[in-house]
Amino acid sequence: MVLANQIAIVTGAARGIGQAISMLLAEQGATVIAADMNAEGLTAAVGEAKAKGLAGKIVPKLLNVTDGAAIDAFIDEVMKEFGKIDILVNNAGITRDGLLMNMEDEQFDLVIDVNLRSVFRLTRAVSRYMVRARYGRIVNMASVSGMMGNPGQANYAASKAGVIGFTKTVAKELGKRGITANAVAPGFIDTPMTQVLPDKLKDGIKQFVPLQRFGTPADVAAAVAFLSSPASGYITGQVLPVDGGLNM
Ligand code: NAP
User: Fold this and answer.
1) Beta strands in 79-178 (DSSP E)
2) Dmax over Cα atoms in the chain, in whole Å?
3) Exactly one of 129, 135, 156, 234 is catalytic; which is it?
4) % residues pLDDT > 70 (the chain)
5) Measured from the CB, is residue 19 less than 6 Å from ligand 1?
6) b or e along 69-88 (b: 16 or more beta carbons within 10 Å of the residue's beta carbon)?
7) Atom of ligand 1 at shortest distance to CA of 145?
8) For labeling, which of 64, 127, 183, 201 is most exposed (least CB within 10 Å)?
9) Which of 10, 21, 36, 115 to mutate to test the pocket of ligand 1 (most atoms within 8 A of CB)?
10) Which of 58, 88, 148, 191 to mutate to test the pocket of ligand 1 (most atoms within 8 A of CB)?
């Protein structure tokens, strides 16, 4: 199996895209540390993994990615338990949409904290070990919003554009140590994050998707799994859209 004996961390792994990524990396042989602050969702995700014959391949850990001290303790714990970290998938993310003129500071700050500052903190903590190992795969979740902008998402688009700039910088700093850093930029994916949007808005968006459908978590997971694997070893600093052609 392509990821046999590899240790992967996936944040926001309790549901949606993060859960699909965890499952696929586990199916490909990795031991996945599934980090999330949604305890119930984690338990359900572990149950699903067991049902698929992947008992023990998904290890749940409670983590709020906005808590810097908790991140450092979490990475220490993973290193003590597993001895290495080959793959880091920074997937946890939230939206707090609103038009710019009405957007509160707290609404902006929270989205930056969850979507961008956490990526900085986790990558900084993990990179110390990847540098020593001279190997690593870092995959950060961006969004087409961070490339195209999107009305009502000034906070979210800024956070995801930040993720892209951060990813390219990490790729340049760590490339000489055998570490790649790439971003995946999903378009409109059918998950709990988007299921709450009105049908009228969703139908409007679909018209602009050349493939004429919304993506699935599995569509995104496939791209992440490739960028997490040894096969993508000569690809770094890239942003891979998984958007049915929405952004081209
Ligand atoms: P989702 O269904 O809302 O799942 C996100 C997961 O992250 C949830 O389990 C959530 O826990 C967890 N989470 C939120 N805040 C956290 C925190 N502070 N610490 C730890 N975990 C936290 O979202 P998704 O649609 O799968 O999105 C995953 C990623 O893809 C995000 O970065 C998102 O921005 C990006 N993305 C999604 C789409 C899309 O169309 N869905 C498009 C472009 C990019 P709770 O359940 O407790 O909130």
Assistant:
1) 87-90, 136-141
2) 51
3) 156
4) 100
5) no
6) ebbeebbeebbeeeeebbbb
7) 43
8) 201
9) 36
10) 191
Q: Which helix (H) or strand (E) holds 8?
A: strand 7-11
Residue type, 82: F
* 129 tagged catalytic: no
**In one letter, which amino acid is 52?**
K
Asked if residues 2 and 19 have their Cβ atoms less than 8 Å apart, the reply is: no
Q: Tell me, using a 6 A CB cutoff, whether residue 143 lines ligand 1.
A: yes
Closest ligand 1 atom to the C-alpha of 41? 9
Please state, in angstroms and rounded to a whole number, the distance separating the CA atoms of residues 8 and 95. 25
In terms of Cα–Cα distance, which of 178, 179, 188 is closest to 244?
188
User: By three-state DSSP, how is residue 151 classified?
Assistant: coil
The residue assigned the tokens 């459908």 is 213
Q: Is 141 in the pocket of ligand 1 (CB under 6 A)?
A: yes
- Spacing, Cα 187 to ligand 1 middle (Å): 14
CA distance 194 to 199: 10
Give me the sign of the Cα torsion angle 224, 37, 128, 121: positive
**Ligand 1 centroid – CA 23 distance (Å):** 16
Spatial contact of 111 and 143, defined as CB atoms under 8 Å apart: no
Tell me: the pLDDT tens digits for 118-132? 999 999 999 999 999
Please state the pTM of the whole predicted model: 0.98
- Among the listed residues 136, 246, 149, 216, the one whose alpha carbon sits nearest the alpha carbon of residue 182: 136
Please report which confidence band the pLDDT of residue 90 belongs to, taking 50, 70 and 90 as the band edges: very high
